């Protein structure tokens, strides 16, 4: 029985005498001799993202405004739906604007700790149904308090829903911020680990609510993101127009959706990741994570075996 080999398996190495240099990249008429090899004229679409920071760590609204402008210049890096308003998702990850959140907490009657790293602000997507939203907040509150932390209060994030396109509106959540404080003797790394465990347990308990999603929950950063066009992000999140919102580091990201359809939670950036391009080995990567889960063990996360699946089995590869 004769088997047929893939053309790549038949390729023989070239001798020095027969070697021909690759044509110049500007020659767009060039076609590789072997059609199964990549061509330098191929084009691939991908996300657009960047980072801006003050090298001395001085927060300012000018830096935030510059990041917003930079994001608006990346509209071409993402797709646009037929309604002309729904994009692939974009957003900003900011170093926590301490002065801004302290002012907000004072307005709402929250008591925050003196040290900035002893309180956290979480951005949370909740259900538009008030009963379901209240239930998800209660679940997250309980998990946070189970970690020995204190929920100082919740805030309704001001938004302008008129900015949202019809397609994005079909899955539009409500937007909340939760303020969490901890004891003065807890370091930021341990604080963030406790917040991680609380978030994971809340997510596992609320899998039947597709709109519940914790965008960010740690003592160092906060994320404003959504299924809107880059130029519309500050018009949607009114906080981004407030000159009190000052930061010294901002990551801005326009997603280019490839192997998953756009959704509010999949807008970039993510909690600890902003990446450029998605992987095509998503099934294999997920399976490897499941296979290795029994071997995960660390004294810093003693409950790690109660938090699986550690990798999302249904969303983006990120």
Descriptive overview:
α3 (130-146) packs across α5 (188-205). By secondary structure, the chain is α+β, with helices and mostly antiparallel strands. The strands form 2 sheets. It has a 4-stranded antiparallel sheet, covered by helices on one side. A 4-stranded antiparallel sheet has the order 4-5-3-6, sandwiched between helices. Mean pLDDT is 79; it is low at 1-26. It is built from 7 helices and 8 strands; from the N terminus they run βαβαβαβαβαββαβα. It has helices at residues 61-72, 98-108, 130-146, 166-169, 188-205, 233-236, 282-292, and strands at residues 48-53, 90-95, 119-126, 150-156, 174-181, 213-218, 221-226, 249-254. It has 2 domains: 54-275, Glutamine Phosphoribosylpyrophosphate, subunit 1, domain 1 (4-Layer Sandwich), CATH 3.60.20; 283-318, no CATH class. The protein starts with 47 loop residues before the first strand and ends in a 26-residue tail after the last helix.
């Amino acid at each position: 029985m004769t088997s047929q080999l893939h053309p790549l398996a038949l390729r023989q190495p070239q001798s020095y005498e027969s070697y021909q240099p690759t044509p110049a990249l500007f020659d767009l008429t060039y076609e590789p001799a072997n059609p199964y090899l990549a061509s330098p004229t191929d084009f691939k679409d991908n996300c657009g993202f960047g980072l801006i920071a003050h090298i001395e760590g001085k927060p300012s609204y000018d830096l935030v405004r510059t990041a917003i402008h930079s994001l608006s210049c990346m509209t071409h890096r993402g797709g646009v739906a037929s309604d002309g308003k729904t994009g692939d998702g974009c957003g900003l990850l900011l170093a926590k604007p301490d002065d801004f959140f302290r002012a907000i907490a004072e307005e709402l009657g929250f008591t925050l700790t003196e040290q900035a790293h002893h309180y956290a602000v979480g951005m949370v997507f909740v259900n538009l149904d008030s009963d379901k939203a209240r239930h998800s907040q209660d679940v997250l509150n309980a998990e946070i308090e189970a970690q020995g932390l204190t929920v100082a209060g919740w805030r309704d994030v001001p938004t302008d829903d008129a900015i949202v396109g019809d397609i994005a509106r079909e899955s539009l959540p409500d937007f909340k911020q939760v303020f969490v404080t901890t004891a003065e003797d807890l370091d930021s790394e341990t604080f963030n680990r406790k917040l991680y465990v609380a978030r994971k347990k809340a997510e596992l308990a609320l899998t039947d609510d597709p709109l519940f999603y914790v965008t960010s929950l740690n003592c160092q950063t906060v994320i404003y993101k959504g299924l809107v066009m880059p130029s519309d992000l500050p018009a949607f999140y009114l906080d981004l127009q407030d000159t009190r919102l000052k930061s010294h580091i901002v990551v801005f990201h326009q997603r280019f959706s490839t192997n998953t359809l756009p959704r509010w939670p999949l807008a970039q950036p993510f909690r600890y990741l902003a990446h450029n391009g998605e992987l095509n080995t998503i099934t294999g990567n997920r399976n490897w994570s499941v296979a290795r889960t029994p071997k995960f063990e660390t004294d810093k996360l003693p409950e790690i075996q109660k938090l699986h699946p550690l990798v999302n089995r249904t969303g983006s590869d990120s």
